[in-house]
Amino acid sequence: MAELSIEVDGMRFPNPFVLASGPPGTNGKVIERSFELGWGGIVCKTLSLDNSLVHNTVPRYGKLHGSGGKKDVIGFQNIELISDRPFDLWLDELSAAKQKYPRHVLIASIMEECSKDAWQEITERTQATGVDGFELNLSCPHGLPERKMGAAMGQDPEITAQVVGWVTEVATIPVWAKMTPNITDITLPGKAAMGAGANGLSAINTILSTIGINLDTFRPMPTVEGYSEPGGYSGRAVRPIALRQTMELARACPEASISGMGGIESTEDALQFMAVGAHTVQICTGAMLQGYGMIEDLLADLDAFLEQRGFASTRDLIGKSLPWFTTHAELVRHQKEAKREKAGQAGRDEMWQGDIASEADSLVTD
Ligand SMILES: Cc1cc2nc3c(=O)[nH]c(=O)nc-3n(C[C@H](O)[C@H](O)[C@H](O)COP(=O)(O)O)c2cc1C
User: Fold this and answer.
1) How far is the centre of ligand 1, averaged over its atoms, from the C-alpha of 205 (Å)?
2) Residue 1: inside a domain, yes or no?
3) Ligand 1 atom nearest 83 alpha carbon
4) Do both 286 and 358 map to the same domain?
5) Where are the alpha helices (DSSP H) in 103-257?
6) Is there a single domain that holds both residue 186 and residue 306?
7) Which of 81, 240, 260, 270 stands 20 to 30 A from 315 (CA)?
8) Closest CA to ligand 1's atom 28
């Protein structure tokens, strides 16, 4: 049997599958259940010091369905905020979960306002529970940015560096900074976080979206008393964007441990994130739709893949595809060279242009 466990920043994950911050890690009971079922780790729902400032709405979810009907969920949108449960209760539950499951990795997701005291207080009080690491939520795209939190911090590399610096000054356990995809160049906050002492980067949080409009009422969805706001998009539809941004972070920050996520629903999806540089992979929407029990298939399929392909361990997959990303100019150069070799003669540019035209034509007529 291949080695499924992996050590990242000194944390030994029994396997690389981690439940992402969100409904799957909403309290101590479900965290313990996930360990029981075999998840390698879990990032709890994001905590803050004062839950009285967090007001969730109902409804707060919306779905985009594919042609397969109601069960075929292509994309998922939420306007859920961070945890609205009391901080002290969270501390008790994190500590109990860690005592019962010392070998499973429990990562605390934390978020605060832009204050050194607040970030250092939440860091020190949370790490006293015995959690293994931190994930800094610098990336929630809705609701919290109105309080200058979440994505409002992660979209500004200077603030990102400042917050990561405050946390790493007092943290005695590894720190991952969770990146927002709602930015032109994700590598800028990534580099800022690493420069300020983070051990790793998590990516991606959700993508700002409007899931749909009800054409009977013209109200945007999810509709709360007739109104809505853009929310965070996740699930299968975001995977190509998440893969691209994970790859960009892995290339720009080779010293970072990367926890990749966004639309992972199967081992095959997870392997692709590892191939572009993820050390661990996180799943949120997939587990909400399929249930926590999906871990059984994820583990069996990972083991089968490693075995079939002759990989001794999970670690051997990391970054396998990175050398194959290049620029468009390089693609053209490679293709010209390949054609020259095939034709056995130099520079037949007319033939090359003709081939491109015929590929485009076939797309139109297919
Ligand atoms: C309902 C819901 C709530 C979420 N809450 C949080 C949160 O509290 N903190 C956080 O960092 N990310 C949160 N996320 C984002 C996920 O952790 C993850 O980054 C994103 O959904 C992409 O992964 P996925 O496609 O596997 O869901 C939430 C996602 C969903 C769908």
Assistant:
1) 6
2) no
3) 8
4) no
5) 116-127, 151-154, 157-170, 187-195, 239-252
6) yes
7) 240
8) 22
Count of structural domains, the chain: 2
Q: Same domain for 240 and 335?
A: no
Q: What is the pLDDT of residue 353?
A: 58
Residue 344 — pLDDT band, cuts 50, 70, 90?
confident
Do 319 and 346 belong together in one domain? no
Per the structure, the complete domain to which residue 182 belongs is given by: 6-324
What would the pLDDT profile of 175-209 be if each residue is shown by its tens digit?
Answer: 999 999 999 999 999 999 999 999 999 999 999 99
Distance CA(69)–CA(66), nearest Å, equals 6
pLDDT for residue 143? 87
User: Alpha-carbon distance 91 to 71, whole Å?
Assistant: 37
Q: Whose CA is nearest to atom 15 of ligand 1?
A: 205
Atom number, ligand 1, closest to the C-alpha of residue 236: 25
| Residue 115 domain flag | yes
CATH of the domain at 301: 3.20.20.70
This prediction's pTM: 0.95
129 alpha carbon – ligand 1 mean position (Å): 23
Paired tokens of 49: 């010091």
Coil, strand or helix at 210: coil
Ligand 1: centre distance to CA 240 (Å): 17
CB 265 within 8 A of CB 66: no
**Co-location of 280 and 345 in the same domain:** no
357 and 240 belong to one structural domain: no
Which active-site residues does the annotation give?
140
For a mutational test of ligand 1's pocket, the pick from 175, 205, 207, i.e. the residue with the most ligand atoms closer than 8 A to its C-beta, is 205
Give the end-to-end CA distance of the chain in Å, rounded to a whole number: 45
Q: Is the same domain home to 226 and 284?
A: yes
User: Is the per-residue pLDDT at 357 higher than 90?
Assistant: no
Q: Does the structure show a pLDDT above 80 at 349? A: no
Ligand 1 centroid – CA 20 distance (Å): 6
